[in-house]
Structure prediction request, 1211 residues.
Amino acid sequence: MNVNQVAENLALSHQEELVDLPKNYPLSENEDEGDSDGERKHQKLLEAISSLDGKNRRKLAERSEASLKVSEFSVSSEGSGEKLVLADLLEPIKTSSSLATVKKQLNRVKSKKVVELPLNKEKIEQIHREVAFSKTSQVLSKWDPIILKNQQAEQLVFPLGKEQPAIAPIEHALSGWKARTPLEQEIFNLLHKNKQPVTDPLLTPMEKASLQAMSLEEAKMHRAELQRARALQSYYEAKARKEKKIKSKKYHRVVKKGKAKKALKEFEQLRKVNPAAALEELEKIEKARMMERMSLKHQNSGKWAKSKAIMAKYDLEARQAMQEQLAKNKELTQKLQVASESEEEEGGTEVEELLVPHVVNEVQMNVDGPNPWMFRSCTSDTKEAATQEDPEQLPELAAHEVSASGAEERPVAEEEILLREFEERQSLRKRSELNQDAEPASSQETKDSSSQEVLSELRALSQKLKEKHQSRKQKASSEGTVPQVQREEPAPEEAEPLLLQRSERVQTLEELEELGKEDCFQNKELPRPLLEGQQSERTPNNRPDAPKEKKEKEQLINLQNFLTTQSPSVRSLAVPTIIEELEDEEERDQRQMIKEAFAGDDVIRDFLKEKREAVEASKPKDVDLTLPGWGEWGGVGLKPSAKKRRQFLIKAPEGPPRKDKNLPNVIISEKRNIHAAAHQVQVLPYPFTHHRQFERTIQTPIGSTWNTQRAFQKLTTPKVVTKPGHIIKPIKAEDVGYQSSSRSDLPVIQRNPKRITTRHNKEEKL
Amino acid sequence: MKVKMLSRNPDNYVRETKLDLQRVPRNYDPALHPFEVPREYVRALNATKLERVFAKPFLASLDGHRDGVNCLAKHPENLATVLSGACDGEVRIWNLTQRNCIRTIQAHEGFVRGICTRFCGTSFFTVGDDKTVKQWKMDGPGYGDEEEPLHTILGKTVYTGIDHHWKEAVFATCGQQVDIWDEQRTNPICSMTWGFDSISSVKFNPIETFLLGSCASDRNIVLYDMRQATPLKKVILDMRTNTICWNPMEAFIFTAANEDYNLYTFDMRALDTPVMVHMDHVSAVLDVDYSPTGKEFVSASFDKSIRIFPVDKSRSREVYHTKRMQHVICVKWTSDSKYIMCGSDEMNIRLWKANASEKLGVLTSREKAAKDYNQKLKEKFQHYPHIKRIARHRHLPKSIYSQIQEQRIMKEARRRKEVNRIKHSKPGSVPIVSEKKKHVVAVVK
Prediction:
């Protein structure tokens, strides 16, 4: 085949396309093509159809308009669905050898990859834009630190660029200058001789050499070493100086001893290592001994020793000192026997070692012995009321148990013993009573009467209880009456001193609280006196103040105190006394523990106290205008007369009733002043995170009245300063030490006019 | 016997000259000054009151134009010279110190759309409705000479704005597209376009001078890179942006004056969210210009007022208005950052102080110290309600005031509706959009 054939084939393929069109309309086609040169065309058609794949055959042929673009280079394969392959084109030239080179070239082309279609214009532009944008934003990011710096700057002075004073460098000044006068020449000669640089690098060659000789790091290390050595030396010197200054003889003695010991040790070592040197050392020591023996040192012959000898008769210490001296002498004059001495020393240390552990163990025993809780309760004196009551309570309870279990069976004799005990105690108390002050009579009377009332009540109760114990009724009653009679007489007497103590204390709210607690204790112990009168007498200190306390409570039970005082009293009434009796010790211990743990956690009481304080604080105060010494004698210890004080005391008017007067659990502060509120900041302003920060900024004054001139100027520097009449130019990269982004901002095309011209030339040529 | 004498160094109490102040020894122990805070408070209060008393910002009105003033330009080298273009094609050059017109040029037929000065201050450019760009000499013609432009470029379309490069002999015009011109050529070096709407303003970045920003009437702001001759990015806002202005101290910050009464400050690296939305105007904002310190900017609005905003605050610190000032079309902050000029519809250019109560002229050192102290006091006590109320008080014309009230009600209603919508729909289905994001429609790469 030749090229013509190829062309024919191409034409055929065109025809195929044309033929494809009417394929969808087989009926009409048959009709149309039936007549003229149908035979051949039909054959071709069949061939074409057979050459097509099964898939392609089904494909719908597209109707297309005649394309506007007619290209002479590309062969349109539109519609056929089959791409033109190079192999098809090459097939015909297989045989002809003249076209071998062409074939080779074509083969080479075949091996190369197909270049992808260029993107459409919009896409390309977008990519260009994105790249350009990312580049620009990168360029702009260099301004971030500067902008941040400017924002945080204490003060910005505009215009920003500093005008540097135009000082010409010395080289410029020197270039046009020559030494003329002899003096100048002389100086220059000198400079040149020393190779003193006149121009820029201001170092002589010598200096340079020295700089190069030692590297920076080496120099640093060297310097550090020197510094360290110097420091150590100074420390040592300081230490020596201090030691020298010490006046304590004991210290010096110890030092001397230490030195001697050290010398001895060294000698020992030397003996092992170098016997010859050791011998010399030994000689030295021997010599020293001889010297000592010759001298009268340490032989109680000195001035000091003589005085001590006189004192020794009376003073133990002096005697001891003398003995020490003699011992020393002996030691020094003794011949050196190294081995034995060391042994002795060891023995001594052993003894010491033995001694020490014993002591330590003892101490440890002491520490370990009792329970820490117990230990604490035993030792601590400054405990709360609860703990103070402990020791009282314990014997009471012990006695209580006795009374509960054994009162009925116990013989009368035992009770008589108890009676005796009681009497003894009574006498003791009377003695102590003498020491105490007497209370005002009136209060005594009231207390007496109230206490008697309570006592009578108690008696009635006890009788009721007694009736329960039917079997021992008579005996019990007989026992009961005796102490009752006794009690009736001594009780008031005893009550007085104890009441006195209490009355002194009951002043604060806490005291009242304690009283309340004690009261509840007392109620627990109520049944005891019913069974045994003497038992009740054992704890009279608690009892008699009960009525008084109750009375006070009645006065104080208003709305406010109700909260705190209520709970103990209620509990005391509600809890049955018998159960209380049966409480075993364990429970009590536990309660004790809890009480200890939560001691001082009375929230309600704290609140009430707080409220009372607030109320007190908000009350208007009286104004005292008395001038001491005005119109009368004044001075230390003299007070203005009562009349005067009355005259000049301005009573504060009663303010309006408090808003929280009838609200026991609320404190409504009345401090807020609406007139002042207009001048107060209500909400924390933005940059501040805590009100204290804000307050601090307000509290520091900035005026010159409170600050020195320098501080005032510093505090009042404005953030932005502009100079009048100066043009402020936009910030420049050169001003802040950056290089400006480019030589020129002109577009790329403009910057390379050469390229443009060449292109123009090309165009012209074309 | 040694007698102890009281001796003092005369340097401590003798004045050098009799003009010096007497030295007053003071004890600064804070225990001796228990009322320092109240005293400073009162001082601050007085300072604030005095500031309001002395707040008289209006300095002068320059009249002479026979139509509304459409554009203003500053002289780059001379503080006293200002150029203005009017709607009748007239350009006037003013001297601010003498407060009179130096020179009048009939530059164009129809509006003078834009005016800009060359960076060296020797000539200036104008564009007008007659499709021409003209370059003029700053100095007037000699006696008897005709007023003639140095160059005239006849374009195909109307130019709506012009800006000159900050360093090179290049300027940019806008209209159908952004054109970059060499001063020596009659054809643009390159023209950049993105979309097919008319561009109303173009501005060169004063720091990174190859950057350009423009705003078009299809609601977008486009940034261009002059070196690579491509647009960079485009942000589309709710409404049309009238002008943009670059911050002269922060390279990537610019502010756009929008038709929806707000101004938007953008970081050009992150256009999807404005750095700050400045809202106080009650009508379209027509022009904006930065203070040369970059800390504040001034905006001119159709609501017949100009406002000064701190860059980092969304509310204005100052509003200027007069009875006779109509819609303000252009505004400029002078390059010493002391004054503001605005040109308005009713043919006048007004000169204002940037700080309403600032004392003009040379201050003595004591005056300066007192000024600084008062300023610090005002800052220190600015959160106190009494002081705040006084400092914030401004008088507004009734129209603006009622507009503000009305818009407040509208805004509140919108907010309420939004809240209700969120409340009555499935949680998460109605997104909560912040005020900053609300106004940005899209960012196009």
